[in-house]
Amino acid sequence: MRNVLLSYRIMAYVVGTLLVFLFIGVILKYLTTEGTDPQRLGEWLAMYVGVLHGFLYMVFLVTVAMLAAKARWSIAFTLTTVISGLVPFMTFYAERRATAKVREKFPETRPHSGSVAG
Question: Closest Cα partner for 82 from 63, 106, 108?
């Protein structure tokens, strides 16, 4: 369970970060003057980060499905977690929520807290 949770968390952060850059790219592409450097940057971000986000979103979906099956999430919880990868900044909230839910149900996934003997 720990490895599945870690895979999901990594993909959530990667997809969420790419989505923020894609959001910035779309804003620059459509809300700046045509032909300016910010507009060209926006086009580049929207094109390349958009493709990368789309590809990695598919990997994110697989990690959500694997975690949902192992943790026995409800359909509603799973769907909101899936949708979070499409809404800027929501991915980070959903990751915290999903991690807390898994760690509550599966204590072995909690980080080890203890002092180092020395």
Answer: 63
Tokens of 31: 């809300």
Count Cβ atoms below 10 Å from residue 4 Cβ, excluding itself: 17
The tokens for 51 are 């493709």
Give me the pLDDT at residue 118, please.
45
pTM of the model: 0.89
Helix (H, G, I), strand (E, B) or coil at 9: helix
Q: Judge whether 43 and 30 are in contact, CB under 8 Å.
A: no
- Sign of the Cα torsion 70, 71, 75, 80 reads negative
How confident is the prediction for the chain on average, in pLDDT?
Answer: 94
User: What does the radius of gyration of the chain's CA atoms come to, in whole angstroms?
Assistant: 18
Distance CA 12, CA 96 (A): 10
Q: Convert the pLDDT of each residue in 28-81 to its tens digit.
A: 999 999 999 999 999 999 999 999 999 999 999 999 999 999 999 999 999 999
